[in-house]
């Protein structure tokens, strides 16, 4: 049987499952609170499933595995360690954020600093930033589907667009249920992928021995891997320690102030469940990233170089499609699809909730009809998804680096006003507004004047931007305190 037929069978079965989970959410989402946060009554298993599936995106599955294949284990420290540090920050804010009675980060900023303008601007930032980040998920799905089903990239991203819209229309209940299914698919797929890589390379010892001597370009015309650099710190000296540390200011602080995780904290039935959700997810993710490290380095041993692709983000699906039987690569196909869809639908829901709570309800505070708000929420899902689809037609070169830049916007805009507001009584409205404006302006100016999101070894512009924002936030707060 041709490979494409087997892949189509996997794809068909996965589609049926998504249709089922999407349909169930429609029946349970009776109010706008149900739609956006599951009625704030989600149990531990549902919380862990949706937190895990939302976290593990195409940036992890394809971006990180491709970066490890190309540059070595250093990219665990570039991305995974900052992510985990950001997650521990989330644990610290659980009790105070939930007790605030707010649904979104911009809504909290309004309540804490008494500024509707801050909420409106914050809502716009959330919407624009997540539309930009959704490009990662659509591109990730498009790359794997076009590779496995042998169809065009454009047709592939239209398929994911339809899937994501359908599952998101059911709201948090649909997403939580489909995320449980997607989490299982991701974990099972990576377990299979790790096992077959270890078997094909004759064990972990062989992988380590072989990567010590590998050199050459990973893809045609791409980065030349110096001999032995895959197992050396800082990619054999090609990355600076300053550049590595700067990733924390993009990925780490961006995750710590990320609306897609704070809404899951709010959706949990109580504080204890929310904290356990984050801790248990980190434990599972630790195992997942060990698997990705083995897959990335092992794939480089199996195929030292790939001539037929132009992006490192396509390495994972390409290697498995070329080197393993259809049934094995079909399972990997499902895992990559699940990673992209489970993150994309969560991010679309955050875009929709931010528009409803942070923009529409500010403009029309007396609107209370759940039917109208549900209709509006689903319409925004459609609009935001359509814009992301259009942007994905001209995607970024590197998912892992592009994602760090997008997350950097959250760190510069929200980290200081959010954590400062929760933990520092002296934080003032003028300080929050100034830090947000100055931080974002600094980041945009740096990007426009030479910082290239395609350069894998650049210092993340979030680092200087957060530093400047911190100076304004602390300085203005202390100044206004002293004036009293």
Overview of the structural elements:
- There is one protein chain.
- The protein has 484 residues and is mainly alpha-helical.
- It has a single domain, classed as Sodium/glucose cotransporter.
- The chain contains 20 helices and 2 strands.
- It is globular, with a radius of gyration of 22 Å.
- The protein starts with a helix and ends with a helix.
Keywords:
484 residues; mainly alpha; Sodium/glucose cotransporter; 2 strands
* Average pLDDT for all residues: 86
Strand arrangement within the widest β-sheet reads 1-2
Listing every helix as H and every strand as E from the N terminus to the C terminus, the arrangement reads HHHHHHHHHHEEHHHHHHHHHH
Summarize the biggest pleated sheet.
Answer: 2 strands, antiparallel
Short description:
With 484 residues, the chain is an all-alpha fold.
Present the secondary structure layout.
Layout: H1 3-28, H2 32-37, H3 44-55, H4 58-71, H5 74-99, H6 105-113, H7 116-149, H8 153-169, H9 171-200, H10 204-211, E1 216-217, E2 224-225, H11 234-237, H12 241-256, H13 259-267, H14 271-302, H15 315-323, H16 326-363, H17 370-391, H18 399-423, H19 429-448, H20 462-483
Antiparallel strand pairs: 1-2
Helix pairs in contact: 1-8, 1-9, 1-16, 3-9, 3-13, 3-14, 3-16, 4-5, 4-7, 4-14, 4-16, 4-18, 5-12, 5-13, 5-14, 5-18, 6-7, 6-18, 7-8, 7-16, 7-17, 7-18, 8-16, 8-17, 9-14, 9-16, 10-14, 12-18, 13-14, 14-15, 16-17, 18-19, 18-20, 19-20
């Amino acid at each position: 049987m041709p490979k494409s037929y087997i892949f189509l069978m996997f794809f068909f079965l996965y589609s049926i499952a998504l249709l089922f989970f999407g349909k169930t959410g429609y029946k349970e989402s009776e109010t706008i609170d149900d739609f956006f946060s599951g009625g704030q009554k989600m149990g531990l298993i549902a919380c862990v499933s949706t937190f895990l599936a939302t976290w593990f995106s195409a940036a992890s599955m394809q971006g990180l595995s491709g970066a490890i294949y190309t540059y070595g284990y250093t990219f665990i420290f570039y991305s995974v360690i900052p992510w985990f540090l950001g997650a521990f920050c989330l644990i610290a804010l659980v009790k105070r954020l939930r007790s605030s009675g707010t649904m979104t980060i911009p809504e909290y900023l309004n309540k804490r600093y008494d500024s509707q303008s801050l909420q409106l601007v914050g809502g716009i930032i959330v919407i624009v930033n997540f539309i930009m980040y959704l490009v990662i998920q659509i591109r990730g799905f498009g790359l794997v589907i076009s590779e496995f089903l042998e169809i065009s990239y454009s047709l592939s991203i239209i398929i994911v667009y339809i899937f994501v819209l359908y599952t998101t229309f059911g709201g948090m209940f649909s997403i939580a249920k489909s995320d449980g299914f997607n989490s299982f698919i991701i974990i099972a797929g990576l377990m299979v992928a790790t096992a077959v890589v270890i078997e094909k390379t004759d064990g972990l010892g062989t992988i380590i021995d072989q990567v010590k001597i590998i050199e050459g370009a990973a893809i045609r015309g791409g980065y030349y891997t110096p001999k032995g650099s895959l197992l050396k710190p800082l990619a054999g000296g090609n990355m600076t320690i300053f550049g590595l540390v700067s990733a924390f200011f993009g990925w780490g602080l961006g995750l710590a102030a990320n609306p897609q995780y704070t809404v899951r904290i709010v959706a949990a039935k109580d504080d204890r469940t929310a904290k356990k959700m984050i801790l248990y997810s980190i434990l599972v993710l630790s195992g997942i990233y060990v698997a990705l490290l083995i897959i990335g380095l092992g794939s480089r041993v199996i195929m030292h170089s790939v001539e037929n692709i132009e992006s490192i983000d396509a390495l994972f699906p390409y290697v498995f499609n070329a080197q393993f039987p259809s049934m094995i690569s079909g399972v990997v196909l499902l895992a990559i699809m699940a990673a992209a869809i489970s993150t994309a639908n969560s991010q679309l829901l955050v875009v929709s909730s931010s528009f409803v709570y942070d923009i529409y309800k500010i403009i029309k505070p007396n609107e209370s009809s759940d039917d109208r708000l549900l209709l509006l929420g689903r319409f925004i899902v459609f609009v935001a998804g359509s814009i992301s689809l259009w942007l994905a037609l001209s995607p970024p070169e590197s998912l892992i680096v592009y994602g760090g830049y997008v997350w950097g916007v959250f760190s510069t805009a929200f980290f200081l006003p959010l954590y400062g507001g929760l933990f520092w009584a002296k934080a003032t409205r003028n300080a929050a507004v100034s830090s947000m404006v100055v931080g974002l302006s600094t980041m945009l100016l740096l990007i426009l004047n030479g910082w290239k999101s395609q350069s894998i070894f650049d210092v993340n512009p979030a680092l200087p931007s957060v530093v400047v924002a911190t100076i304004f936030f602390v300085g203005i707060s202390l100044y206004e305190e002293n004036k009293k």
